[in-house]
Amino acid sequence: MSAHMLADLDLKTLTVTLTVVTLAITLLLCLVGWQVGPRHGMRYWTLGNLAVMLGLLLNINQGHIPHSLSIVLANGLMTLGLGVVWLGLRNFRDLSQPQWMPMFAALVTMLLLWFFRYQVDNLPVRYAISSLVLGGFCLLCAAELLVPTRAPMRTASWFSGLIALAYGLILVARPAASLAGWNGPADLLGGPLQLITVLGAIAAQIGMVSGFILMIHYRNLDRLRALSEQDPLTGALNRRSLQQQAELMLCRTRLSNEPITLIMLDADHFKRINDEFGHQTGDEVLCHLVDQTRLHLRSRDLLGRFGGEEFVLLLPGLNSLSASQVAERIRQSISDAAWPTHKHTVNITVSLGVACSEHHGYDFTTLLGAADAALYCAKGLGRNRVEQAQAPGDAAQELVALRLLSHFRHNLDV
Ligand SMILES: Nc1nc2c(ncn2[C@@H]2O[C@H](COP(=O)(O)OP(=O)(O)OP(=O)(O)O)[C@@H](O)[C@H]2O)c(=O)[nH]1
User: Fold this and answer.
1) In angstroms, rounded to a whole number, what is the distance separating the alpha carbons of residues 317 and 306?
2) Strand, coil or helix: what is 388?
3) Contact in structure between 204 and 196 (CB atoms under 8 Å)
4) Is the pTM of this model over 0.95?
């Protein structure tokens, strides 16, 4: 925008526009808040914008209402509003929300403005105080937004954060510009820097609030995705997404020619735990099994609930020997960690079958079948043990015998 165009703009019209934009945005936030409920900081953002809008309304009536309202209270409300927006961002990130801080900042701002209006009438100092406090809160908002997060949340959060940072820097630079003599006392009420500040405020309002709404949208998407992918009881992947993610992982490891191992884990005599302690304890034991298992997994490993008390693990990059060692550690830690309920201590063990791509290839169903057969061996050989899958064709008859033995022991409950 050229200096001529800027000179054609008048501050009052721009400030009225900013007030109307803030009002529209507050209404929009109310509507969004209605849909998403009180969570996600939305209530703070709506209240914050409402306070900023009331402050602007008072401010544009300068000359028609007393300065105690149009300057002192107006700036107090704007400070409070931006502070409350900052609280909303902390609420969104599940951080503590020191509610005293915006109120304290607003009170101090009002006291100082009152002093520099009614005791010592000094416009540049008032200008510096309001710029520094409002700019400070914008920078605090930027600090909450420009944090490492995963895509696509990062796009929305950093978008808002960069806007808050840019606008915060403009605001705190204003007193410096005055000190440097770029903005004389006459310019404070309508000079180019003041016009740019108000234009910037309109853009920042629209940009930041659009970013907030996107942030809520991405968070809801994340939650929906987690709901559709996770087993609601244990938090492990559900069977459908286990299969999808396993097939992708198998494809990738085949292309990179890495080994990958599938482990099937099954709780021993789980029916007995349900019968003896009740289904609720049974459910808690399943969660405990998953927690214990996770302790031995890396972030890239997959853990899914295949059904009932049966879980599948996929360990990329591990051959059968290393994966069997992981399986053994899981078995050991579960059998060592008795599960204390409020009434009893439940001892639980697991059996595990291990099948590696080295012998069984990269097809999910084939690996699963091989690990399942190894699991049957582990059950047939007395449970609470790890068995490696036989190479294909090695021991078909032996497997049939072990399946029968496993069924027999299961029926006898030994
Ligand atoms: N509490 C609880 N129980 C479940 C859940 N899913 C399956 N089960 C129970 O898990 C038990 C599985 O029993 P079985 O298949 O006979 O196996 P098991 O008793 O563990 O015996 P082995 O596997 O042979 O050691 C059944 O009693 C199911 O009702 C669940 O989500 N919660």
Assistant:
1) 22
2) strand
3) no
4) no
Nearest Cα to Cα of residue 209 among 36, 46, 38: 46
CB 260 within 8 A of CB 314: yes
Active site residue 309: yes
- Point out which residues pair with 316 in neighbouring strands: 260
pLDDT at 347 over 90: no
Q: Using a 6 Å cutoff on CB, does residue 307 contact ligand 1? A: no
Token duo for residue 5: 């165009």
Exactly one of 309, 328, 358, 398 is catalytic; which is it? 309
Q: Is the peptide bond preceding residue 152 cis, with omega within 30 degrees of 0?
A: yes
| Amino acid, single-letter form, for residue 196 | I
Question: What are the structural domains of the chain?
Answer: 3-228 (1.20.1070), 239-412 (3.30.70.270)
Ligand 1 centroid to 312 CA: how many Å?
16
Quote ipTM for the complex. 0.94
Burial class (CB in 10 A: 0-12, 13-18, 19+), 381: middle
pLDDT tens for 154-164 read 999 999 999 99
DSSP string, 48-84: HHHHHHHHHHHHTTBTTB-HIIIIIIHHHHHHHHHHH
